């Protein structure tokens, strides 16, 4: 995936990391959460503009 869409690969990796750590009850680093929330906001903005 990274060879075709690096942004999508990074987004998927961050999302997977947050879900994994949260599922284990492990604290997620604040900067990781900040990036995760930013990426989610970007995804919503793109989804909203496509409708």
Features:
0% strand; 51 residues
In brief, what are we looking at here?
It is built from two helices and no strands. It is mainly alpha-helical and 51 residues long. Helix 1 packs across helix 2 (30-49).
Question: What's the SSE blueprint?
Answer:
Blueprint: H1 6-24, H2 30-49
Helix pairs in contact: 1-2
What would you say this structure looks like, in words?
The protein has two helices and no strands. It is an all-alpha fold and 51 residues long. The longest helix has 20 residues, at 30-49. The protein is globular and about 35 Å long. The model has no long low-confidence stretch (mean pLDDT 86).
Amount of helix: over 70%
Distance between the termini: 26 Å
Q: Can you give the mean pLDDT?
A: 86
Q: Let me know the largest β-sheet.
A: none
Taking all Cα atoms into account, the compactness measure Rg is 12 Å
Q: Please tally the β strands and state the result.
A: 0
Percent in strands: under 5%
Using the alpha-carbon principal axes, give the shape.
globular
Oligomer: single chain
Pick out the low-confidence regions.
none
Q: Helix count?
A: 2
